Amino acid sequence: MLNRAARYFPILREMRQVLDMEHGCRVLEIGSGAIGLGEFWRHPFVGCDVSFTERPRAPMQAVKCSGSRLPFAGQSFDAVVASDVMEHIPPEWRRSVVSEALRVSRRVVVIGYPSGPSAMAADRDLREWYLKKKKVPPTWLEEHMRHPFPNGGLFSEVGEEWTVKAVPNESVGFHSRMMRLEMYRPIDQLFRLGLLAMPNVIEGFLKRKDSEPSYRKIFVLCRQDQ
User: Fold this and answer.
1) d(C-alpha 30, C-alpha 110), whole Å
2) Taking the complete model, does pTM exceed 0.90, yes or no?
3) Residue 190, domain extent
């Protein structure tokens, strides 16, 4: 739970700097899963994924499709989000997903993913920790082992109409500790209660952990002609 908050809080902060998020903003999330940013943002949005292993939850409107071929008209959303999706996509398809996100966004695209050798080393250590505990590593972690993590070069061909900013998200050390703590149900429940009771305090705490060397980079792409 805290891991998802650490990913989505900074994405929502970046979006609020560009958009009036509370008044009629049209948002698409690529690779949303069943919940996506709806866990932390209670307004309607469209979430797309190649499949939904759970029943999608409100306020998300679910659309089954590939991020590399979005069934939406150009500039039909104010914002497009993809959180911890790109690292699960084979490298040869990643630019297509970025291109589609830019095509359907009118204002801003926010894409976050693990990046760099420190992040990969942290995930390899986490996988070994699971095995030493005689636990089966989660599917997402096994998928992280299949391909190199993307880097900032993914946006080298976006065109002059877009500005690109990179924001560090979760220091590697903090991320590693958090992922281990979340495996213990009482601690995870404590995280959930904290998020319900004092979300602003938790967000402030997590923001202080967004430092280098970071586990994840969040890339913010803004259209200049808007």
Assistant:
1) 10
2) yes
3) 2-223
